[in-house]
Amino acid sequence: MDYSSSRKQLHIAMFPWLAYGHIAPYLQVAKFLAQKNHHLYYVSTPKNISRLPQLPPTLCSNITFIPLSLPHVDGLPPGVESTSELPIHKVPYLKKSFDKLETQLTEFLERSPQIKLIIHDFAPHWLPPMANQLRINLVCFSIFNASTNAFFGPPSEILGGSRKSPEDFTVVPTWMDYPNNIAFKLHETVSHKECEDIVSDFERYATVLLNCKILTLRTCYEFEPEALRVLSKIHQKPIVPLGLLPPPLTSVDDKGDENWEALKKWLDSKQEKSVFYVALGSEVSLSQESMHELAFGIEKSGLPFIWVVRKPPLVEEQFAQDMIPPEFEERVSKQGM
User: Which of 155, 190, 247, 316 is deepest in the core (most CB within 10 A)?
Assistant: First the structure.
C-alpha cells in the first residue's frame, strides 16, 4: 500500500458487525479519518445507521452512509438489525443474514472504484476473496483490546490449535510470555456457544486476520505494551493501536425533561459518592432468576442506587414486568430509583 503522500485523500469503506458496541467505535474512527480529509463510506443497515449520533457539520461532506438492506432468513424476527434486539440464542440468525450482505456490498464496491481500503470487523469471513478480486486492501479493526487479541493467539491456533475444549480457554496460553492472569471463566466459554453460527466466530476472525494488511486495536502502548509486543510477534504484520476510544462527552439539555429534573433533584439530596449505579448495557439480558437475585442484593445493601432496567428483547410487556420481583419498587421507593 503506497500511502506515502500525506496530502492524498483516501476513499475508505467502514464495515462493522451489527452490534452497537462495534458500530459506535467504527463511527469514531470514521470521524477521526474524516478530520484528516479522507472520505469515508460507512456501510451498515438502515436501522443501525439511524441510531448513530448526528455528524458535526464540518464532517458531513467527508462521511457518506451506505445503507444495505438486511436479507431475510428463517428464524430472524422481522425488523431486527442488531444484537441488542435479540436474545443470545437467536444471534446466529443475525450472522446468517449478515453473511447475505455479501452481494449488496460487492455491488456497491464495484460501483465505487475509488475505494481502495476497507476497515472491517471480525465477522465477514467472505470479504477477503471479494476484496482481492477488486484489488482493495483490508484493515481489520478489533474493538477488543490487545490482551484479548493476544489471548486468542495466531490464526493457526484460532482455527484449531492446542485448545480443543472449553476448559482449555480457562488457562493463560504459553505464547503470552509475561506475567498476567488473562483467561476465560468456564461459564463464559460455554455460554458463548449459544451465539455461534455454522461458521464459528473463531473461524471468522482467523480468516480476516490472515488476509488483512494491518490489524488495528482499541488500545494504546501506555496501557498494554506487553500485549502489543506479543501481537506483533505472533501476527508478523503491523499492529496499530488507535487509543481507547471512550464515548464522546455530550452536553445534556435538561430543560423541560421532567424525568431528568426529578433524578437530578434526588441525586442532589444524597451525599457525595454515596449512590451506586447499576446498568448492564444494551447487549446483556439476564434471566428472571438472575434479575430477582440482583434486585434482592440491591435491596439488602441498603444503599441509595440508580438501576437502569432494559426490557429483554422479544419479550411481551406483561412478561417483561415480571423481571422485577413483586412489590420491589414499593419497598425501595425511598432507597433508590
Answer: 155
Q: How many CB atoms lie within 10 A of CB 330?
A: 8
CA distance 79 to 61: 30
Known catalytic residue at 22: yes
Which residue in 22, 120, 125, 235 is the catalytic one? 22
Q: Is residue 4 part of a domain?
A: no
What is the number of structural domains in the chain?
2
Q: Nearest Cα to 19, choosing from 80, 84, 86, 101?
A: 84
Per the structure, the complete domain to which residue 55 belongs is given by: 11-241
pLDDT in tens, 38-93: 999 999 999 999 999 999 999 999 999 999 999 999 999 999 999 989 988 899 99
Give the global pTM: 0.85
Active site residue 121: yes
Q: Of residues 99, 120, 121, 235, which has the active-site annotation?
A: 121
* Residue where one domain finishes, among candidates 190, 211, 241: 241
